[in-house]
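Q: what sequence does this backbone want?
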C-alpha cells in the first residue's frame, strides 16, 4: 500500500482489489466507531456497481458483523437504477444481500432510494425530502459517501453530458442516461460535496485512462464528471488498486 498526497485529496494505492476491500472495511469500521462515539450516529451513502461488494461481504463477517454499532448507523445510497428493490440491477439489492440482511441493523436505519417509482422525478423529490427531513434544519451533510468511477469517468449516476451535471444545489435528481436508454436517481455533486468524508473505490486497468484524466488531466467535468467531486469542507480519498493507478504520474 502506498499513498500519494495532493493539496485537495489523498490517493491510497492498494496492491489489489482484495487489499482495497480490506482497507476500505477497516476505514468504514474506524469511522463508524468515531462518529457514533462523537455524534451518536454515523450516516453513510453507499455506491452501487461491483467494486464495493467485497467490502460489504467483509463487513458482514467477524469481527465487524458482531462488533460495529449497527443500531447507530444509517444507510443511504449515492444513486440507484430505476428498477424494483428485488431486481438484479438494484444497488439496494446488492447491498442488502451481501451486508444489510446479515447484520443487526434496524430496518428504519436503511433509507433506500424509491427508484421503482414510475415517476422518476417524483422518486428523486421523495428521496430529497427523505434526506432533508432526516437532517432536519441543516442541508444534508453525510458523514461518509462512498463513490465508484466508471471507465467513462462517471460517478454515482452523474454521467458525461447528462442533465444531472447541472443540477445546482438540488439534493437528488432523476437523470436519463442515453447509453443505457434508462433513468437513474442520483445524488447531485452539490449534495455529495457537502459530505464530511468522500471515498472513491476504484479498481481495474480498464479504469486507468479515465482515472488519469480525472486526477491529473485538465478540468473537464462535462466529459469526466468525477471531477465535480470536490468536498466543500470535508476530506476526499481515492482508494485505488495498482491496476487502476498504472497510468498515474
Ligand atoms: C452504479 C454506480 C456507479 C458505479 C460505477 C463503477 O449504480 O452503477 O453507483 O457509479 O459506482 O459504475 O462501477 P463498478 O464498481 O462496477 O466498476
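A:
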Amino acid at each position: 500500500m502506498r499513498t500519494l498526497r495532493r493539496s485537495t485529496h489523498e490517493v491510497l494505492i492498494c496492491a489489489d482489489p482484495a487489499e482495497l476491500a480490506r482497507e476500505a472495511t477497516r476505514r468504514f469500521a474506524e469511522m463508524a466507531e468515531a462518529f457514533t462515539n462523537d455524534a451518536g450516529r454515523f450516516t453513510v451513502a453507499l455506491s452501487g456497481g461491483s467494486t464495493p461488494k467485497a467490502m460489504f461481504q467483509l463487513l458482514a463477517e467477524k469481527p465487524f458483523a458482531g462488533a460495529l454499532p449497527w443500531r447507530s448507523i444509517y444507510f443511504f445510497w449515492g444513486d440507484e437504477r430505476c428498477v424494483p428493490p428485488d431486481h438484479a440491477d438494484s444497488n439496494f439489492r446488492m447491498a442488502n444481500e451481501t451486508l444489510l440482511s446479515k447484520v443487526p441493523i434496524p430496518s428504519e436505519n436503511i433509507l433506500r432510494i424509491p427508484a421503482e417509482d414510475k415517476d422518476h422525478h417524483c422518486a428523486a423529490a421523495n428521496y430529497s425530502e427523505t434526506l432533508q427531513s432526516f437532517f432536519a434544519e441543516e442541508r444534508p451533510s453525510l458523514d461518509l459517501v462512498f463513490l465508484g468511477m466508471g471507465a467513462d469517468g462517471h460517478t454515482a449516476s452523474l454521467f458525461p453530458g447528462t442533465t444531472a451535471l447541472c443540477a445546482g444545489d438540488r439534493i437528488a435528481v432523476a437523470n436519463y442516461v442515453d447509453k443505457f436508454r434508462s433513468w437513474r436517481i442520483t445524488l447531485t455533486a452539490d449534495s455529495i460535496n457537502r459530505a464530511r468524508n468522500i471515498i472513491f473505490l476504484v479498481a481495474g486497468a480498464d479504469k486507468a485512462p479515465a482515472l488519469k484524466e480525472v486526477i491529473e488531466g485538465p478540468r473537464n467535468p462535462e466529459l469526466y464528471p468525477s471531477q465535480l467531486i470536490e468536498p466543500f469542507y470535508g476530506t476526499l480519498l481515492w482508494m485505488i488498486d495498482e491496476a487502476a493507478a498504472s497510468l498515474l504520474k
